[in-house]
Write a sequence for this structure.
């Protein structure tokens, strides 16, 4: 089980979700992925994407200039 | 399983454990349907999900027949997204969500969002069937997307494709004579099922094979949205996205005129993602053929354009409150004064004797600049792109 980070800053929806999805495919179940975004829409979309694809959101942080979403990869991707 | 009569007398068929094993053996649809009910692995369909009502209903109608449905959504760069609108401070109240993800969640299905930005350039720049009312190459676009869905289906072992098309709904891609074009040019042929208007089309493979019951599909046609709204009500769907102006910016006249201007200024039809994102933001004015201004319309757009400061010459108003202005093109030092006089019109100093700016060249060098704002009648209408 490892922790990885993904930088999607500067990208607008749905690119942060697409990059998260593509990265998640390369990870193993149980791995943790920390996604950094500047589009606040990611606060809705990445958790929604996690819910429908069986991943678990561990933490969301809505900072001044950046949103950080930490998720655990589920078994189905 | 206990089937009687004709079916039991066919040894090959009686031995079949599910509809998968019947393919090619029989055209006896009711029997296949009976087998489907016992099949441990339902047929699998991939649905094109735009986030609007039609594709949502199309997926739902097939899901309701026991088929496993997963969604595909393509990001071309031109998609109308709540977030793109949400760049503007005045529109922050719009729901900040991706409608395709929202639909998938409502239907309890997986959604795969696919970045087709690069491949889509060919579709938009060289459409075989031309453009619709603006720069929307809808017929080529539909064929491209269904073609991508066909590739996805082959790679993932799915059985057929679903779209939410309705005969006569759209003037270009959803006419009675163009629906077969999409099926043919995408290579999907009769793997393409349009549940909302299937009853008006020849039966497709999923119908003929009994994977779906044609009787429980629909025959919607025309531009009226009432049948879809009635069907949504039947399924208890009360909330759905109704994107004004369709699913992408290419149908928008003002956006299309900015894109045409970009191509004209470049002397060729070419774009990158940042170009087309920037066309969604700010006022665009072209006072000279070789440069254009992008003036933020509010604090939200200023924040967004700030991300591009490193790539563009730009003007930051220092003496008054005012928007950030990016300057795109081969701008010479002498052009800055005109650019600043225009930009001054859009800040709080528009009636002042002088407005000051920090002018930053594309190479990062900077200087201070004070100018007299142009009056409204000194900004000709045709500078606005
Ligand atoms: S409106 Fe845009 S996304 Fe929809 S079919 Fe036409 S070109 Fe494609």
């Amino acid at each position: 089980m490892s922790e990885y980070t993904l930088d999607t800053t500067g990208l607008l929806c749905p690119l942060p979700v697409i990059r998260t999805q593509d990265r998640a495919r390369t990870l193993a179940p149980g791995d943790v992925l920390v996604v950094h975004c500047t589009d606040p829409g990611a606060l809705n979309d990445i958790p929604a994407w996690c819910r429908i694809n069986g991943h678990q959101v561990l933490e969301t942080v809505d900072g001044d200039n950046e949103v950080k979403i930490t998720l655990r990869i589920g078994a189905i991707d | 399983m206990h089937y009687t009569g004709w079916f039991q007398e066919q040894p090959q068929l009686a031995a079949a454990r599910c509809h998968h094993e019947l393919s090619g053996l029989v055209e006896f649809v009711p029997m296949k349907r009976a087998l489907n009910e016992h099949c441990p692995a339902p047929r699998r369909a991939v649905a094109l999900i735009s986030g609007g009502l039609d594709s949502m209903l199309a997926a739902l109608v097939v899901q309701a027949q026991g088929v496993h449905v997963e969604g595909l959504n393509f990001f071309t760069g031109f998609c109308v997204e709540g977030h793109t609108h949400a760049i503007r401070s005045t529109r922050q109240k719009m729901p900040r969500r991706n409608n395709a993800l929202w639909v998938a969640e409502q239907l309890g299905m997986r959604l795969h969002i696919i970045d087709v930005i690069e491949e889509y350039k060919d579709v938009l720049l060289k459409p075989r069937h031309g453009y619709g009312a603006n720069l929307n190459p809808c017929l080529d676009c539909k064929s491209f997307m269904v073609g991508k869905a066909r590739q996805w289906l082959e790679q993932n072992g799915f059985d057929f494709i679903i779209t939410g098309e309705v005969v006569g709904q759209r003037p270009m891609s959803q006419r009675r004579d163009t629906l077969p074009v999409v099926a043919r040019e995408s290579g999907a042929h009769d793997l393409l099922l349009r549940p909302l208007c299937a009853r008006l089309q020849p039966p497709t493979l999923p119908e003929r094979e009994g994977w779906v019951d044609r009787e429980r599909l629909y025959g919607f046609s025309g531009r009226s949205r009432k049948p879809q709204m009635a069907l949504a009500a039947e399924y208890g769907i009360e909330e759905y996205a109704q994107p004004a102006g369709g699913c992408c910016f290419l149908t928008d006249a003002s956006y299309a005129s900015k894109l045409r201007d970009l191509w004209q200024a470049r002397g060729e039809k070419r774009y990158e993602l940042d170009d087309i994102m920037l066309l969604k933001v700010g006022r665009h004015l072209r006072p000279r053929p070789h440069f254009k201004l992008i003036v933020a319309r509010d604090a939200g757009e200023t924040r967004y354009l700030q991300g591009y400061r490193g790539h563009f010459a730009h003007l930051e108003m220092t003496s008054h409150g005012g928007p950030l202005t990016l300057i795109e093109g081969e701008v010479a030092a002498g052009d800055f004064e005109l650019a600043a006089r225009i930009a001054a019109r859009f800040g709080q100093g528009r009636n002042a004797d002088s407005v000051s700016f920090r002018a930053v060249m594309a190479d990062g060098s900077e200087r201070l600049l004070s100018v007299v704002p142009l009056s409204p009648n000194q900004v000709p209408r045709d500078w606005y792109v």
User: Anything to note?
Assistant: The first strand of chain A starts at residue 3 and ends at 8. The mean pLDDT of chain A is 93. The CA atoms of residues 29 and 73 of chain A lie 5 Å apart. The two ends of chain A are 15 Å apart (CA to CA).
